[in-house]
Design brief:
The protein is built from seven helices and 19 strands. It is an alpha+beta fold and 393 residues long. The protein folds into two domains: 147 residues, Schlafen, AAA domain (Methyltransferase, Cobalt-precorrin-4 Transmethylase, Domain 2); 214 residues, no CATH class. 34% of the residues are buried.
């Protein structure tokens, strides 16, 4: 792959491939032009796309002439063809592959007057193996240094087992950490048992070959904070780095955010749910959702900056919340006073596959489910257009 964000690739990068005679390989493929529009041509295209997703990911570059795998010349594609080609790619991948491949990006690059090259970046997929289903073909492909090949039965079985085990590892990490928090076995002692827990788990964290974050290089950057009030302390620890609020009593803190070297972020906040009066256990519905939207965005921006690859699995869990409710001051649903009936509210997993995703939209299903637990149909902080727009009641 070209070792740059796809949006930053330019003509000079493509010229470098040609001038340095960079061979096609497992993660790089050159195409002079798009083949025809027959069913067999479409299958061949999908074969290439899925082989990258089922292997290590990579770039396909259209508009470069190659000879025996060596790039010889940048040819380009006429500008007036580009938009239709992009639509053709998007439609074909959407209709001809199962399951859907997340995170594919397409970038046109100016290479000459009225001509562009087209780079398609296919990430290694956490949903693999992907099957070419166009016209009921049903084939699985992967890539090696020698090119594309069809997966045999044993390889296919291994691919399915690996996919299932990865999802299980992520879920187990989340469950184990929540169990530790509930048991009070946290990285720092928390002030209360009622906590908001936000966990962002990049899939790359479970790849032993993935590059680790250089904690020394990020330690002095004010890249993010705790969920609500903000951190006043930070230190390097065995796992990576931890930011936390100042101790309020006997070494206890209201909040911490742990950055793991593998890119996992765990943020725990107790101040938003703290209550001295057992009869006044309310979730501050505006501050609660505002803080989670803001902090989630900050953490994702940081992971993007340090080049931790998508997708990210996001979990939001409330602990020690049995008996909590939404404030009773609403001028609607009068008389409904449901309290949360369990100690732990654990959201469905949210998966971030695109950095352009709006975080308020991403988190809305989580917020709605918490309001459901309090007897309401949905969060009242979203307007008729589905955007976060809190009103004060």
């Amino acid at each position: 792959m070209i070792q740059k964000p796809i949006e930053n690739i330019n003509r000079d990068d493509l010229l470098l491939l040609v001038n340095d005679s960079v061979l096609e390989k497992k993660t790089l493929d050159y195409k002079e032009k798009f083949s025809g529009n027959s069913d067999s041509d479409k299958r061949e295209f999908l074969k290439d796309i899925t082989s990258f997703a089922n292997s290590s990911g990579g770039d396909i570059i259209y508009g470069i002439k190659e000879e025996n795998g060596v790039p010889a010349e940048i040819i380009g594609i006429y500008n007036e063809e580009i938009d239709s080609k992009i639509r053709w790619i998007e439609d074909l991948v959407r209709q001809g592959v199962q399951p859907r491949i997340p995170g594919i990006k397409i970038q046109p690059i100016d290479v000459a007057d009225n001509k562009k090259a087209l780079v398609i970046r296919i990430p290694k997929s956490w949903r693999s193996p992907h099957c070419v289903t166009f016209q009921n073909w049903s084939r699985f492909f992967a890539r090696s240094s020698n090119g594309v090949y069809q997966l045999d039965v044993d390889e296919l079985r291994s691919a399915f087992v690996l996919s299932e085990s990865l999802s299980e590892k992520i879920q187990n990490f989340k469950n184990d950490r929540i169990a530790n928090i509930v048991a009070g076995e946290t990285l720092l002692r928390l002030n209360t048992k009622s906590n908001i827990v936000l966990q962002i788990v990049p899939i790359s964290a479970f790849n032993i070959k993935a590059e680790k974050i250089d904690i020394k290089s990020v330690f002095n950057n004010q890249f993010f904070n705790t969920i609500y009030y903000g951190a006043s302390r930070k230190r390097i620890n065995f796992e990576g780095m931890i930011l936390y609020s100042e101790a309020i009593e006997a070494g206890k803190v209201d909040a911490y955010t742990q950055l793991y070297k593998n890119g996992i972020i765990e943020a725990v906040e107790s101040s938003l749910l703290s209550s001295a009066d057992e009869s006044q256990k309310f979730i501050p519905y505006v501050a609660f959702e505002e803080a989670l939207i803001k902090s989630t965005k900050q953490y994702i921006d940081f992971l993007k900056e340090v080049k931790v690859e998508l997708p990210y699995f996001i979990f939001i869990t409330l602990t020690g919340v049995k008996g909590y409710e939404m404030p009773k001051s609403f001028n609607f649903y009068r008389g409904i006073e449901y309290k949360i009936d369990r100690e732990i509210l654990s959201s469905e997993v949210i998966i971030l596959e695109d950095f352009n995703t709006e975080i308020d939209l991403l988190l809305r299903p989580v917020f709605d489910s918490i309001w459901n637990a309090c007897g309401y149909t949905q969060s009242i902080n979203y307007d008729e257009n589905g955007r976060f727009n809190p009103k004060k009641y």
